[in-house]
Design brief:
Chain B: Pfam families: HTH_20 (PF12840). The structure holds two protein chains of two kinds. Chain A is of the alpha+beta class. Helix content of chain A is 26%, strand content 40%. The radius of gyration of chain A is 17 Å and the shape is globular. Chain B has a three-stranded antiparallel beta sheet. Chain B is α+β, with helices and mostly antiparallel strands. The relative contact order of chain B is 0.17. The chains are: A alpha+beta, B alpha+beta. The interface between A and B is large, with 50 and 42 residues.
């Protein structure tokens, strides 16, 4: 299941896997394993480490995602920035993985949120929330194809 | 998997809407239809120069259009410009669901 959480700048995908957190953590943080389900990468679970995910280039995009490790909390939380595109035209998000032991396995939550850090601060202090905007956006989106 | 969501235009749209006042102005325009800068200033509760500045950013992102009539400038929303935002939710929603499936398959293969 995926849904836009309380705001359209946050995408949440959650699932319970019938595997222990240790195994999930390996899949999320060991580069060769990560490559098997995400994309080829030079990831290392070290805060501050800059790395890249690479996929097939397409027109207008090199297929590169520029990342930096933000949080490494073994078997619990992993976070990295997620940047697509060059500087001015680029878009930046933060990906946060949260692992929670669940009955018969592990609950995995992936949250991708944006936009830029300074804008994030702005958004958190906002009295006019995204939530309200999102209901409007949904209405508008219905009118788009 | 294409993850760039037509960035050149998308970045303008995302940034324009990252600001709560601009978001409020944009929504007010989608709700009420065309409005003058004066009306929008009353609505936003900030100074008119501030409102004008916000409207310029929205205009650059093609989220609003304006026309002049006498001494008043009228603005209206261009909701079609929201497409990159809708694309983002759609593109990344599909991307992560697909990755979760692949993760599940990998976990089965792992010892």
């Amino acid at each position: 299941m995926s849904h836009a959480a309380e705001s359209p700048d946050t995408l949440v995908v959650e699932r319970v896997f019938a595997h222990p957190p240790e195994k999930l953590w390996r899949a999320l943080t060991e580069s060769p394993l990560l490559a098997q389900w995400m994309m080829s990468n030079d990831f290392e679970p070290v805060v501050g480490r800059r790395f890249r995910f690479r996929t097939e280039p397409v027109s207008h995009w090199s297929g590169v995602v520029d990342c930096e490790v933000l949080v490494v909390d073994p078997q619990r939380r992993l976070s990295y920035s997620w940047g697509v595109g060059e500087s001015e035209a680029g878009l930046q998000w933060v990906v946060l993985w949260t692992l929670t032991p669940a009955e018969g396995g592990t609950h995995v939550r992936m949250e991708q949120s944006g936009f830029r850090p300074e804008q994030k601060a702005n958004y958190q202090g906002a009295k006019y929330g995204w939530q309200k905007f999102f209901s409007g956006l949904e209405r508008v989106a219905e009118g788009l194809e | 998997m294409v993850l760039h969501v037509k960035t050149a235009h998308a970045s303008h749209v995302f940034r324009a809407l990252a600001d709560p006042t601009r978001r409020a102005l944009f929504e007010e325009l989608t709700r009420q239809g065309e409005q003058t800068v004066h009306a929008l200033t009353r609505y936003a509760g900030v100074s008119q120069p501030a409102v004008s500045k916000h409207l310029t950013v929205l205009k650059r992102a093609k989220l609003v259009r304006h026309r002049r009539e006498g001494r008043e400038t009228h603005y209206r929303a261009q909701p079609d410009a929201l497409a990159p935002m809708v694309d983002w939710l759609r593109v990344y929603g599909a991307f992560w669901r697909d990755r979760f499936d692949q993760l599940e398959a990998l976990l089965e293969r792992m010892k």
